[in-house]
């Protein structure tokens, strides 16, 4: 008997079939089938209660839709099937958030808030306000997924990247890596700071008055991580005193930022309401993540963002 | 007699010695000396009348400070020394202007004008406004220095680049190249358009009402080339009708944009007063250009942006 052609890997989509995800499955080398016939399930729902109570025995891998999966553990879904491969969407949205942070920084350096407020042609005045990221030193505090995704963007415009992480281990593309215990000294020798670190007791008010004092009047501070990493009152003071150039905040403390807060109206504060990774953009990023994991599943390679059912994350 | 160590190449700076340029000369492998002892002259002045009437016989190369050198020909300076190597600053500022165009596009796609106008936390509303350049198709019309410098920036955030040029010759990094005679069809299949073409009779109103009609309600049009390439009245109409997402204009028609013009106050119009390449930024970019040419001069390689004294450019 001669060997038959290999059948495409059979992938089910739930809770419903979505065109973006179906395309991603096909791009990855799979075929979309009903759950009963599938080897893998891509579940794009966020509510564990809607997840199938039983899975067919043919299923070997389940791809979930969120980066954090605590609620899937809490609901007992993952532990019900400890022998399956489970993957999350961790990392899938890093590039989206990084693009947002990069936009805030570029907009600041190129004086877009002041340009947008202008209603008359003031070229000479703006000549003195427009800067460049070319040759600028940018600290990325927290070189996880978001920070790493930002590095090729920054180097594409000629910035020099100083990554700050806990281990001091090399970060691909960074010009320099500094360990987190030396983060304060970094403020004294960079032009701009991007905060992309996790929120912990250690990172609370990582950017406060002493750190802001080390920056310059053209420095921008960007935060796309968690509000409490930056001391809001210290930022307001630094903006009022023109100690720094400006801030771009996708996260705030308190959050939501209350009506009437000075950050809404201070000239060089750009506030975006924690929308760096909106649902519309998330769909495309998740589809790319699924396509890559399907390709790996078909090829028998290790999957991205694998969940450890024992460890609980 | 044993051979002596090679002497550093001797470069003079004029009209005065500037630290940035002196550093660039040293970085390129040269040594800053007085004009009388120099093999090359880097002249950072813009007025041909101030250029030395006589040059020492030791001079073999002169680097000028501007991208266009018509006024240096008009003043007869270059033709007085037809046997020297002359170089301009052509290309030195492309990356600076490209960074500005890229900033305008990213700011538009991420809804920064509307964010900056907000004074209350409206996350759900902004979820529907924030987009991404990841996977977006961006046409660059005019793939000269500025257009080419933009390509690595766009690809770093995952955009798909369609370059439009006259020859249809491949453009490094572009996903597709379309010849200029087919430019209109490009508007029907891209998300955003960046205008970076030279101003000629053929390119006047290259972006007009028929072209804008082919774009979508989330499309941004960026112009960093010359004002008349874009039909201003058509843009105003398209913005009022929400036919396009917005415009980012560093050049306008008329220019300067008069007080009271609707583009100053229409919500998604970002106007910057032809300041994409301000003197402050230009100095660093020119120094990089000088450093590279000094390196090439020292190494005996062809110089960048060589002027043809016979041809007159």
Automatic annotation (TrEMBL), chains A, B:
Keywords linked to the UniProt accession: NAD, Oxidoreductase
Keyword Oxidoreductase on entry: yes
Gene3D superfamilies named among the record's database cross-references: NAD(P)-binding Rossmann-like Domain
Source organism, top-level taxon: Bacteria
Ranges where the D-isomer specific 2-hydroxyacid dehydrogenase NAD-binding domain occurs: 106-274
Pfam family, one: 2-Hacid_dh_C
Name of the protein in question: D-isomer specific 2-hydroxyacid dehydrogenase family protein
The organism of origin for this protein: Rhodococcus parequi
């Amino acid at each position: 008997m001669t060997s038959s052609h290999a059948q495409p890997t059979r992938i089910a989509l739930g809770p419903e079939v979505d065109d973006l995800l179906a395309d991603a499955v096909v791009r990855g080398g799979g075929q979309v089938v009903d759950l009963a016939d599938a080897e893998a399930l891509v579940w794009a729902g966020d509510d564990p209660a809607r997840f199938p109570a039983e899975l067919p025995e043919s299923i070997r891998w389940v791809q979930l839709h969120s980066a954090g999966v605590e609620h899937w553990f809490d609901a007992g879904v993952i532990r019900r099937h400890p022998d399956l491969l489970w993957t999350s969407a961790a990392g899938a949205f890093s590039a989206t958030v990084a693009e947002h942070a990069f936009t805030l920084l570029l907009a600041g350096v190129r004086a877009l808030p002041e340009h947008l407020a202008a209603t008359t042609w003031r070229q000479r005045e703006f000549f003195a306000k427009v800067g460049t990221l070319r040759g600028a030193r940018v600290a990325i505090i927290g070189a996880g997924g978001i920070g790493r995704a930002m590095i090729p963007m920054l180097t594409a415009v000629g910035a020099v990247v100083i990554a700050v992480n806990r281990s001091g281990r090399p970060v691909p593309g960074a010009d320099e890596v500094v360990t987190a215990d030396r983060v304060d000294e970094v403020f004294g020798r960079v032009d701009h700071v991007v905060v992309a670190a996790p929120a912990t007791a250690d990172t609370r008010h990582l950017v406060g008055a002493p750190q802001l004092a080390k920056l310059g009047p053209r420095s921008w501070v960007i935060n796309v991580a968690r509000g409490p990493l930056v001391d809001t009152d210290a930022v307001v003071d630094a903006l009022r005193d023109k100690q720094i150039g400006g801030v771009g905040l996708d996260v705030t403390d308190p959050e939501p930022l209350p009506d009437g807060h000075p950050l809404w109206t201070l000239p060089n504060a750009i506030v975006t309401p924690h929308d760096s990774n909106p649902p519309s953009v998330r769909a495309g990023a998740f589809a790319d993540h699924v396509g890559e994991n399907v390709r790996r599943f078909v090829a028998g390679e290790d999957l991205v963002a694998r969940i450890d059912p024992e460890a609980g994350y």
